[in-house]
Structure formats: structure tokens, C-alpha cells
């Protein structure tokens, strides 16, 4: 994982605290994400959305800890990458996920500005790249 700017990490954490205080934030995210494509909508059909929202909340807080470079969490993120590969989740789906998430942050963080956006992008992109690096390494070892 690349090193995250500590100032951006602090901004990310503060913003995350603000948005995660509202359950509507998670509803907004999933409504936006699922509406982006039939493929995504189908994936979430008949899923326990209450559980998924809880898991998303936990994952977002874990992103901040992962961005600090905690080794165990980096391994967890790499494992998540392999899980998503088995589920046939593609890079384009992560782009849609990020777009829906940032839209929800913009809507629910009353202090949203360019600095908050930059902080979220840095943390999220860093973690997503870690996942894809792990997937690339897995593919190389398999061939």
C-alpha cells in the first residue's frame, strides 16, 4: 500500500464520522449503486440489505485503518479482492461503487468540499489498488 497523506486521512476519518451517523447515508449509497446498472441491481437482488449496510459501515472504518498501513488489515483487503474476483466483480464495478459512495458523501457530509473529496479519493483508490494488485499477483501465480 502506498503511504496516505496523514492530513487527508484525518479529513477522511472526520467526514466518515459525519456521514455514518445517518442510516440514510447507506440507503442513499445503495440506492445509487444499484441503480447504476442492471448487473449490479441483479447482484443485490434478494440480499440482506440491513446486513450489507452494516458490513459497508464496518468496511469504511476499516479503510481508514488499512490506509494507516496496518499489515493484518492489508492482508484482509487483499483477501477481499480475491472474494470479489470469485464473485466476478470487475474493475468497472469498483468505479461505479466509488461514484455512488462519493455521491452519498457529497449529499450527507455538511462539510463536503474539494478537500473532503480528495481525502476520500486518496483513501478509497489506495485500497482498491491494493485489492487489484493482489488479484494480479494471484493471476500471475496461477499461470
UniProtKB/TrEMBL annotation:
Keyword Iron applies: yes
Residue ranges of every copy of the Globin domain listed in the record: 43-131
Alphabetical list of InterPro entries matching this protein: Globin, Globin-like_sf, Globin/Proto
Keyword Heme belongs to the record: yes
Pfam families named in the record: Globin
Gene Ontology molecular function terms on file: heme binding; oxygen binding; oxygen carrier activity
Keyword terms: Heme, Iron, Metal-binding, Oxygen transport, Transport
Domain of life: Bacteria
Similarity section: Belongs to the globin family.
Protein name per its UniProtKB record: Globin
Organism per entry: Candidatus Thiodiazotropha taylori
Amino acid at each position: 500500500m502506498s503511504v496516505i497523506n496523514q492530513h487527508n486521512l484525518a479529513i477522511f476519518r472526520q467526514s466518515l464520522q459525519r456521514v455514518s451517523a445517518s442510516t440514510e447515508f447507506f440507503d442513499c449509497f445503495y440506492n445509487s449503486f444499484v441503480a447504476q446498472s442492471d448487473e449490479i441491481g441483479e447482484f443485490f437482488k434478494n440480499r440482506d440489505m440491513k446486513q450489507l449496510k452494516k458490513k459497508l459501515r464496518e468496511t469504511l472504518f476499516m479503510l481508514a485503518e488499512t490506509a494507516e498501513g496496518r499489515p493484518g488489515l492489508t492482508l484482509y483487503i487483499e483477501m477481499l479482492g480475491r472474494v470479489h474476483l470469485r464473485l466476478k466483480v470487475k474493475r468497472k464495478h469498483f468505479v461505479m461503487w466509488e461514484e455512488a459512495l462519493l455521491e452519498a458523501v457529497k449529499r450527507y457530509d455538511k462539510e463536503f468540499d474539494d478537500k473532503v473529496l480528495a481525502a476520500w479519493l486518496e483513501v478509497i483508490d489506495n485500497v482498491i489498488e491494493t485489492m487489484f494488485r493482489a488479484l494480479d499477483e494471484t493471476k500471475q501465480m496461477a499461470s
